[in-house]
Every structure is written in structure tokens, then in C-alpha cells.
């Protein structure tokens, strides 16, 4: 893999990290838009399998054969740059975006609404045409469920370690599920601010519990999602599209603290401008990614032709 592409993956990872800190936006959505989603899911599945084989084979003296086989199938050239970018992206977002959400909630949600709305076209286009009736129904059902979920009033929970563990296990699913925001789920149960504070204050005790919950959630969920993408790809993408559409409710700029939706009011023009900026940013990302893929496919075709001609 070329150096330029590795650097691109670092920036993609930074964007995913930023998205994970923002309520209403899923890191999985950014991964999907930037073209790394399926490789990340496949790699995560192989890592989970490698850990499982290591835990079962090594104590029995069976060696590293199955574990090594799984690890060799991980897209390390994609995963490592993404991880390098994600951590600073998350830390920067925790420092800068949270005050913006507090001080300028309507304008910030307007920008995010444009980002996510434009992102919906990615999984929809990946399903392909024509759409079958079952896929349309799945999209509608997922949209309704996501709309209802994002309308739930914010709860307030004491950050007990067990609660943090369970919340992290559920929220991390959003890292691999486009349309479902892990930060929004934390906000719903009242753990968003404590988690952001823990990140900013380097509360390693809280973060260790949270990280444990993430590992548990990934181990339980990733293999299922990998299987769904392999065996029921169109239906899974249809559900993802519906989840993205339904989650737009959380990003409507004009809403109360109880998440009641209001008609457009103050700051309409600035919010509209930020909305259009969000649409333009994602559209540019999608166009750039598709051009990169076409260029890579063309280079591969030319390389294959030259190899064949040389023979």
C-alpha cells in the first residue's frame, strides 16, 4: 500500500474518532462513507476469532496455528493507520466539540444534520437496484425504530462501574453500526458528560472500566455483524440505511431539552448554511473515495494487462 493511502487512512481514523465523540453521528457512518467499513468489520472479526482460538488452543498445547491464520487475515495496513488517527481525533473532539454543543447547539446540530443526511446515500447506493419489497420494509422498520430511540428523554444514572461497563458494551456497537451513535446512547442514559470528563481529565479508572465494556461489546457483536454482511449483505445495508434516516431526528436543530421537535425558528440562515456545508463535505468525501477506487481499479487492470503481455 502506498504511503499516501496510509496517510489517508490516518485522516479517516481521525474523522471516525471525532464522530465517536459527537452525539448523533456514528463512527461507523464515517467508516462507510470513506470506504473502509467492510475491511474494518472483517478485520475486527478475525481479531475476535484469534483471541478465541488463543484462549482455547494454547492451554491445550495446540500452538498458534489457528490464531496466526486469523491474524494474517487482518487488514493491518488499514487498521493500524486508522487507530493512529482515531485517538487524537477523539481527544481533540472531546476538548473542542463539547463546548460547541453546549454553547451553539442549534448551529452544531445543523452542521451534523447535513453530514449525516448526505451519508445516507452511501449504504443506499451499496444495496444496488432494484430494491426488493422486504428490503424497503426493513429500511422503514429500522428508520421508525431509530426515530423512536432518538426521541427518548435523557436519563440520569450514577456512573457506577457496572453501569459504565454495560453502557460501554452497548455503545461500542455504534462504532461498527452506521446510523447508531454511541455518544448519543451515552447521552440518553446520562453518561455522556461523565465519559467526556473522564477523557479530558485522564480518569484512567473510569476509562479502564469503559474500555473493558467496549471489548465485551465488540466480542459479542462484531462476529454477528460480519456474518450478516457476508450472508445477508443487501438486507443489512438496507437496515443500516433506515437507521441512518431515523437517527436524523436527534440532529434536528430546533428541539427542546426533552427532545420535542419544534418548527424552524431563530438563526435559520446560519443553520441552513452550516447544513449545506455538512452536505458538501460528505459529498466531497464520497466523490474523492469513488475516484480513488476507480483509479485503483484502473491501475490494477493495467498491471494485470502488462503482466499478461510480458508472458
UniProtKB/TrEMBL annotation:
Source species, domain of life: Bacteria
Q: Which UniProt keywords apply?
A: Membrane, Transmembrane, Transmembrane helix
Q: Which Pfam families match?
A: VCA0040-like
TM stretches of this protein:
74-94, 110-131, 137-155, 162-192, 204-225, 267-288
This protein's record includes keyword NAD: no
For the keyword Ion transport, the answer is no
Give the PANTHER family listed for this entry. Answer: INTEGRAL MEMBRANE PROTEIN, POLYPRENYL-PHOSPHATE TRANSPORTER
What's the protein here called? DUF368 domain-containing protein
Q: Which organism is it from?
A: Micromonospora radicis
Q: List the lineage, top down.
A: Bacteria, Bacillati, Actinomycetota, Actinomycetes, Micromonosporales
